[in-house]
Amino acid sequence: MNRVVIITGASRGIGAAAAQVFARAGYAVVLAARSGDALNVIAEKIVNQGGRALVVPTDVVDEAAVQRLVDRTLDAFGGLDAAFNNAGSGAPPTPLADMDPRAFSEALQVNIMGTFLCMRSQIAAMRTRGSGAIVNMSSTAGLQGVAGLSPYSAGKHAVIGLTKCAALDYAAQNIRVNAVAPGPIGTERIDAERRQQIGQYVPVKRVGTPEEVAQLGLWLCSSEAGFITGAVVPIDGGRLAGTPAFAISP
After folding, report:
1. Which one, 70, 140, 191, 207, has least CB within 10 Å?
2. How many CB atoms lie within 10 A of CB 83?
């Protein structure tokens, strides 16, 4: 059986890395994000390397758009085996009392409602398949507070709650739901000098890479992780083991 995965937030960073990691592992990859042009570039790379990719521009807070994403996946590939719900949003670091309520609401909409809507449609498709695995994107900011990042941290805490509830709801139906909680990751939004500065606060003395997070997501979707559900797996170079939190832009 051909394996099929949906990846949201796939236009850059961890999502783009996940698209290529899952494709190399043999998955047909369905790429979702609001930017269709960026997704097309990634899809072309996957196809040129012999993989299978489908681009479906999607706003994850739009219920109809999310259902269309899943429907197009089923039409193209006949089923859905895995999902990596990576789409997220934050706001510039701001003390809570100075936060614009609209920015706060937007972050919660994408992180909470977006994750909920995606899981809702994905699980329905996986139940037809008879099994499935979902990985949701949280953060170390979802495991502890971070000064200045109240909407991001609140949203990522909520993702963990959604993950645990869904894991319990569907464990007996062979659908596993887990979350990953990255610490500082060196995406294209962080320049080399800033990566080096941030790395000094991490026990392993570097930031992580998008590919490392993607590989963790791939493993959690694999049969090797078949007895893991409802888990939250930090990938943070040891920072949660005891290093104090510090504010960085999500």
Report:
1. 191
2. 30
pLDDT at 247: 46
What is the secondary structure of 63-118 as a DSSP string?
A: HHHHHHHHHHHHHHHS---EEEE----------GGG--HHHHHHHHIIIIIHHHHH
pTM above 0.90, yes or no: yes
**Dmax over Cα atoms in the chain, in whole Å?**
52
Secondary structure string (H, E, C) spanning 29-53: EEEECCCHHHHHHHHHHHHHCCCEE
Residues 209-233 have pLDDT tens digits of 999 999 999 999 999 999 999 999 9
Q: How far apart are CA 176 and CA 50, in angstroms?
A: 29
**Contacts for 156 with CB less than 8 Å, ≥ 6 apart:** 88, 111, 138, 139, 141, 142, 181
8 Å CB contact between 170 and 147: no
Q: CB–CB of 248/185 below 8 Å?
A: no
Interatomic CA distance for residues 21 and 29, integer angstroms: 10
- The answer to whether 29 touches 217, Cβ cutoff 8 Å, is no
